[in-house]
Specification:
2 strands, 435 residues, 55% helix, two-stranded antiparallel ribbon, single chain, 3 domains
Length: 435
């Protein structure tokens, strides 16, 4: 059979044809390079203005991709039941977002090749245009979960004021404020963490017992100390830790902190995040733990991006000049570095409430089974064991009321010792595979 690309109008060609001989889609038209490469219109003769435009256009393209990935994750979390088999897709999207943000942070190095004198050649011509008018960055903040009441006000006005009467932008911003944010969807998902239910494993009760035990040991250590200075020091540490633990065990205190914007996750969601952090080694919590870390990476990188922006502004115009859009410039950017702009601040603060490994409540046999993964079918057949397919399911946090894989009434085809042995081997293989 002859090559179809060697035909011309159905006839055999007399010679080979090059790629350029074929009509239709090509690299330039597919990427619409004629539009992109002609979008750098400078308004002065300054050499560095072209660089300034290209870098900011690149930022906006990356913001668009980040928003696209965040929207994909939000769509999965918005489903009635979050299928845990989609966790790999969620983690992949968030890893991509983190890598893009790392690139955005480093992109400031290119702008820093421009000197303040170079910038002065065209800066005055930019007014009243300002980076504050990047509506995509505002969309990203809203979609992640930054609340309006936590924003620093722009010239004592709402941030939407700078977009004037552009109906398309204002509608997009309004929608982003009203739709469930990634932070809200994450909170709902964490509330369904298996093991939180009171009639089952009841992680929160076990965790409180462990905390009370460690705190009692600390109190006794303080009482046993004979040197007054050291005794006061140990007792002060004990009281400080006790106040911190009270703030998570007392739901009223937690809700008060949420109302002040100091905490973002619901009380039950915080419990779920803590449980995932303690038992991250079990197979079912591998990817959820990865996700929590990626969200902290995202928050850290956005803070680094803000910091690099602030330092660039200080380098270019100092700390006293007003920004081209009328903001306080350096001072405004500096104010956005506080924790109020960290959407996932609760995840950072989880380490405050961790316990030593030897104090972590051990998982019972039912929870080990529930949080393990399904064995290979051929392995089950070789052992002559019949296991219900859902017994080692890695399905998502669909409901915290999910039944234990094997009901007491269900006929067991193997002994408890065999189950424990099978479970331990399964977990060991999963851990080895993840290393």
């Amino acid at each position: 059979m002859s090559c179809p690309f060697g035909r011309v109008n159905g006839e055999e060609g007399g010679q080979e044809r090059s790629l350029g001989d074929f009509k239709g889609l090509n690299y330039t038209s597919y990427l619409q390079l004629h539009h992109i490469l002609h979008a750098q219109e400078t308004i002065t003769e300054a050499h560095d203005e072209h660089l300034f435009i290209v870098v900011h256009q690149a930022y906006e393209l990356w913001f668009k991709q980040v928003i696209y990935e965040i929207d994909s994750v939000r769509a999965i979390f918005s489903e009635e039941e979050v299928n845990e088999h989609k966790m790999l897709e969620i983690v992949k999207c968030m890893q991509r977002v983190v890598l893009i943000l790392k690139l955005c942070v480093d992109q400031f190095l290119i702008l820093e090749t421009m000197t303040p004198l170079d910038f002065m050649e065209f800066r005055d011509y930019l007014s009243p245009a300002s980076g504050f008018q990047s509506f995509q960055f505002r969309l990203l903040e809203n979609k992640l979960g930054l609340k309006n009441e936590l924003r620093v006000r722009y010239k004592q006005e709402t941030y939407k004021k700078v977009f004037g009467d552009d109906p398309e932008i204002l509608k997009a911003i309004k929608d982003s404020e009203e739709e469930p944010s990634l932070q809200q969807l994450l909170s709902r998902w964490l509330e369904r963490t298996p093991g939180l239910e009171e009639e089952g494993f009841n992680f929160w009760r076990k965790y409180k017992i462990a905390v009370d035990t460690t705190q009692e040991e600390k109190r006794r250590e303080a009482e046993a100390e004979k040197e007054e200075h050291m005794k006061n020091h140990i007792y002060a540490q004990y009281k400080c830790r006790q106040e911190l633990f009270d703030s998570i065990f007392d739901e009223k205190i937690h809700n008060a902190l949420m109302a002040r914007g100091e905490r973002r996750l619901s009380h039950r969601a915080l419990q779920g995040a803590l449980m995932i952090s303690f038992y991250r080694e079990v197979p079912r919590f591998h990817q959820p733990y990865q996700l929590l870390n990626l969200l902290m990476d995202l928050d850290s990188l956005i803070t680094k991006w803000r910091y690099n922006h602030m330092m660039l502004v200080q380098r270019m115009i100092g700390t006293q000049l007003i920004g081209t859009g009328g903001s306080s410039g350096y001072q405004y950017l500096r104010s956005t570095l506080s924790d109020r702009y960290k959407v996932f601040i609760d995840l950072f603060n989880l380490s405050t409430f961790l316990l030593p490994r030897n104090s972590v409540p051990p998982l019972d046999r039912q929870m080990k089974t529930r949080l393990s993964t399904m064995e290979e079918p051929e392995m089950e057949e070789r052992r002559g064991k019949v296991v219900r397919s859902s017994a080692f399911s890695a399905s998502g946090f669909v409901s915290s009321e999910s039944p234990c894989p094997l009901d007491n009434s269900e006929e067991k085809m193997f002994s408890d010792s065999d189950l424990e042995k099978s479970l331990e081997e399964s977990i060991e293989r999963s851990c080895e595979a993840s290393m």
